[in-house]
Amino acid sequence: MRLLIVEDEETLALNLKKILELKAFAVDWLADGEKAHTRILLYRNDYDVIIIDLGLSGMDGMTLTKSLRAEKITTPIIILTGRSETEHKVALLNAGADDYMVKPFSSAELIARISSVLRRPTEAQPVVRTVGDITIDTAAHRVTIRDAEIPLTLKEYSLLECFLRRPGEVFTREELSTQVWDFNAMTLSNVLDVHMKNLRKKLHNSGNSARFETVRGVGYRFVA
Ligand code: CA
Questions:
Q1: Rounded-to-integer distance, Cα 139 and Cα 158, Å
Q2: With contact defined as beta carbons under 8 Å apart, do 28 and 3 qualify?
Q3: How many A from CA of 55 to the centre of ligand 1?
Q4: pLDDT-wise least confident of 38-52, 68-82, 111-125, 138-152
Q5: Checking CA distances to 47, which of 97, 121, 124, 221 falls within 20 to 30 Å?
Q6: How many angstroms separate the alpha carbon of residue 7 from the centre of ligand 1?
Q7: 91 C-alpha to center of ligand 1: Å?
Q8: Residue 120 C-alpha to ligand 1 middle, in angstroms?
Q9: Residues whose CB falls within 8 Å of the CB of residue 44, separated by 6 or more in sequence, listed in order
Q10: Each residue of 40-51: pLDDT tens digit?
């Protein structure tokens, strides 16, 4: 899952980034509304959730949200706002936001809202999924094979979650990278191979017969 934070308060943005990364999200951060607009239009399918602060330089959060919806960007948007007037909340939802949070908020609340917008019908995915003898609990970030828990790092977990969403399909290296790493880390492509190697080893050592097939020049496929 990849997330974009558009927030001009650096301390808040970096805090959110850190907290969400611990929840296995890949997080990009931009401080400027105009830049965010450009980034989202260029990489429209890369983000699973976009978090937008209302008061931004360049383009404010409300204008940004309206403009993205006008461009047919359907990614869930959560707005961060300092205000709490009722009319204002209605205006945010009318502009195309899926949800809003009034500052200050707790990180637990933000994570709950993110989970909630991800569970909307267009993104409907069960929380616990079983593929072959691998069971993944995407709420608890827990992977088990025949009831034995497999200890995975956050990156390994994110990769496996990606494969288990569409077993049997080929994922390109770019797709895997955008799911798992933030924008700045995308150039380090050999990092992907290292994580894949470790993930393969862990599944193999646990006696799982599923395998990752390397599709030369393209990427990887998971076969249960
Ligand atoms: Ca602000």
A1: 12
A2: yes
A3: 4
A4: 111-125
A5: 221
A6: 6
A7: 18
A8: 27
A9: 73, 75
A10: 999 988 899 999
Take residue 136 and report the two structure tokens written for it: 């993944």
223 closest CA partner among 211, 208, 206: 211
Residue 52 is predicted with a pLDDT of 96
What is the pLDDT, as a whole number, of residue 46? 87
| Separation CA 197–CA 208 (nearest Å) | 15
Q: How many angstroms separate the alpha carbon of residue 189 from the centre of ligand 1?
A: 34
User: Which tokens go with 94?
Assistant: 């009318």
Q: How far is the CA of 160 from the centre of ligand 1 (A)?
A: 36
Please provide the size of the chain in residues: 224
H helices present in the chain, as ranges: 10-22, 33-42, 61-70, 86-95, 107-118, 154-165, 173-180, 189-205
Q: How far is CA 104 from the centre of its chain?
A: 23
Q: How far, in Å, is the centroid of ligand 1 from the Cα of 54?
A: 6
Tell me, rounded to whole angstroms, the distance of Cα 150 from its chain centroid. 22
CA 77–ligand 1 middle distance (angstroms): 16
HSE value, Cβ hemisphere, 13 Å, CA-based, for 136? 20
Taking only the tens place, the pLDDT of each residue in 186-223 is: 555 577 888 888 899 999 888 887 788 988 888 899 98
Q: Separation of 56 CA from ligand 1 center, angstroms? A: 5
